[in-house]
Amino acid sequence: MIFDLVSRPDFLLDIATNNRSKLLVAHAKKQNTYVQKIYRALNLFWKYGQEPNALLPAYKLSGGLGKERPAGKVKRGRPVQVATPTFLVFGGVNTEEDDKTKIQKAMRRFGLKGRKVPFSKVYEQMLKEFYSEELLLAESEQREPIVPSYRSFLYWAKKLIPQNELIRKQTNKGDFERNRRGLIGSATDHTEVPGSCFELDATVLDVHIVSEFQRNHVLGRPTLYCLVDKESRMIVGLHVSMEYASWRAGRQALVNSFTSKKQYCERFGIEIEEGDWPCQHIPQRLLCDRGEFICKDAEQLAVPLIGHLSIAPPYRADWKGTVERRFKILNDTLVHQLMGTTRGRHFIRGDKDPRLDAALTLNEVTKMLIDAVLEHNSSIFESLAAQTKLLIEFDLKPTPFNYWAIHLQKHRHALIKANEADIRARLLPPVTVSMTSKGIRLNKDMYYQCEREEFDSWKTIARNTGSWKLEARIDQDNSSFIYVRLQSNENFTRCELMKLSSIFEERHIADVVFFEDWKTLQLKNNKPGKASLERYNRKNETIKNAKESLNSELPLDSKAEKTRDMKERRRQVILDNRLKSDDLEHAGELSGEITGSSYSASNKKNKVISLLKRKKDEKL
Q1: In this structure, is residue 558 part of a structural domain?
Q2: Which end of the chain has fewer CB atoms at under 10 Å, N or C?
Q3: Across all residues in the chain, what is the average pLDDT?
Q4: How many Cα atoms sit within 13 Å of 288 on the Cβ side?
Q5: Per-residue confidence band for 594, with pLDDT thresholds at 50, 70 and 90
Q6: How far apart are CA 175 and CA 440, in angstroms?
């Protein structure tokens, strides 16, 4: 229609200089159409790039998108199709405004109650609540009820209820905030350098362990505490114990993260250098759960040491997403492959009880977890590559270890170092010990000593005047040492386990508790058995026979007569016993030996005893 016009070189000048172009009017007559149609085509052609596609119809504007259309008598939508022509299918009815209102009420009353409810259940409740009269009338008249179909209900429920409201109202607030809300950023948006924030959390490991003393005794599932640097993803500390999630176990994890790891790894037979796990620092801020750290002890002990303690809201694990992700990594790479693992799921009927496969002790599980942590710290995480330029400048792999090390090397961190003794004295659990004659006693069977000169003098005083109480700090991971305040005006002194208590060397507190319980049960269950009762009866029978024999003897004139000549009688008994043996031929010699003590003093002096002579030295 407009091809000949736009092809003419003088048409653009003509239409731009004249209010009414004669060329356009003549072309409209030639095309047998009106001028306004030519103008509309030209406007579209120039507006959308002067190409043939500019004249395509605007389908996106057609059909009345978003406009409500009044329903007529004819049923809208696809009819129900059946393959058998003998069946009569009810065509259905159009959804009226009253039906839409009822659908909205049904959804808000039955479907948006803070939990996931199937649409079919809501549709059924809607019919019973709002269409009960129609259903009864249709049943009495033997016809199809005039109610919206299930497909119509689905269509209008999703159209009338906003999708965002549908998602929010079909779950609780905590689940929506954790798992369904839109993400607003990264976990490291509010951390700038390593040490800005450590995340601390605990989880029950998905594996059952056994006792160190008796492997056929299952102790249950241990608790793992883990500390992770939020910026670098570096696991800076861990603690595994049989304690439940509490401040008592949490502070052990803090001690582990704030102190050197070399000595800690040596306890489990893992030889590392200080640079292999260079995490012995205090962070600028600690983010943890409110369960174990919202207490008076944490405020008095941890806050002065750390500086700032942040408590996550309840049911908001997403606030500690970094450490939660480390738990999943450790489960996938190690825990779910161990003997006695529950694989993170509840017991299903028919499955083998995982407790029957338990064979690993607490120390063995801890040893493997340390190796898994070292492996994690050396693994590549793509998200670390875009967080800093230092990895690119020094051509380092984006691993937590490299991220941590290069920032410490370039002094771009918020980490603080502290004295290990001060950390342990502040965070370790306080106990009361006794200074005794054997040493410093903890519990009933654990004795410690130190290298101070006056320590032996204190033991002497304790043996002669009685023991006295002392303040101490214990490490639940290692019973080989404790910290004791030996005098009231001194700091804590490290005391090592004595040799007489070497059975507790490098034992966890759980093993110590097991030993105490075992000993208590052994003492409690120590009841006389059959053999013991037989021995007791024989003793009583012997005593009874002896008394009867004594009573059958003739009475003596005096008490002194019973003990008179007691030594002579004893010699005679000895001689009689020897004569009963196989040395009867030496009876004379024995008699002389027994009665030799009755010789006179002069005979004793005249008796000559020959001794072997030593060979004289030739030089002498």
Answers
A1: no
A2: C
A3: 85
A4: 31
A5: very low
A6: 53
What's the pLDDT band for 600 if we cut at 50, 70, 90?
very low
Q: Does the structure show a pLDDT above 60 at 79?
A: yes
Least confident of 303-307, 378-382, 444-448, 497-501: 303-307
Sign of the CA dihedral running 277, 278, 280, 281: negative
pLDDT reading at 423 higher than 60? yes
Same domain, 33 and 117: no
Give one DSSP letter per residue of 38-54, joined into a string: HHHHHHHHHHTTSSGGG
Q: Where are the alpha helices (DSSP H) in 96-218?
A: 97-106, 119-130, 132-141, 150-160, 163-169, 173-175
Q: Are 125 and 110 in contact (CB under 8 A)?
A: yes
**Shared domain check, 284 and 350:** yes
Residues 376 and 283 in one domain: yes
Which helix (H) or strand (E) segment is 535 a member of?
Answer: helix 530-552
- Give the span between the Cα atoms of 11 and 14, in whole angstroms: 5
Q: List the structure tokens of 349.
A: 């009927």
Position 474 in a domain = yes
Among 515, 509, 505, 512, which Cα is nearest to 267's?
505
Of 492, 520, 548, which closes a domain?
Answer: 520
| Residue 288's CATH number | 3.30.420.10
Reported pTM: 0.65
Which of the four pLDDT bands, split at 50, 70 and 90, describes residue 613? Answer: low
Q: Which helix (H) or strand (E) holds 557?
A: none
The contacts of residue 78 (CB under 8 Å, 6+ apart) are none
pLDDT digits (tens, 9 = 90+) for 271-293: 999 999 999 999 988 888 877 77
| Residue 350 located in a structural domain | yes
Q: Is the dihedral of CA 278, 282, 288, 290 positive or negative?
A: positive
Q: Is residue 328 located within the same domain as residue 211? A: yes
Contact 209, 360 (CB under 8 A): yes
What pLDDT score does 294 carry?
A: 72
pLDDT of 370 above 90: yes
* Letter string b/e over residues 309-323, b meaning 16 or more CB atoms within 10 A of that residue's CB: beebeeeeeebbebb
User: Among 24-33, 314-323, 505-514, which range has the highest average pLDDT?
Assistant: 24-33
Query: Is there a single domain that holds both residue 217 and residue 293?
Result: yes
Same domain, 484 and 454: yes
Quick one: which of 300, 282, 297 has its CA closest to 200? Answer: 282
289-295's contacts with Cβ under 8 Å and 24+ in sequence apart are 289/200, 289/201, 289/202, 289/245, 289/320, 290/314, 291/245, 292/202, 292/245, 292/246, 292/247, 292/249, 292/250, 293/200, 293/247, 293/250, 295/247
Residues 240 and 275 in one domain: yes
* Domain count for the chain: 4
What percent of the chain shows pLDDT beyond 70?
Answer: 91
Does 205 share its domain with 120?
Answer: no
The residue among 322 and 185 whose pLDDT is bigger is 322
> Taking residues 81-85, what's their average pLDDT?
79
Structural domain including 40 reads: 3-57
Choose the final residue of a domain: 490, 520, 550: 520
CA distance 201 to 224: 8
- With contact defined as beta carbons under 8 Å apart, do 240 and 207 qualify? no
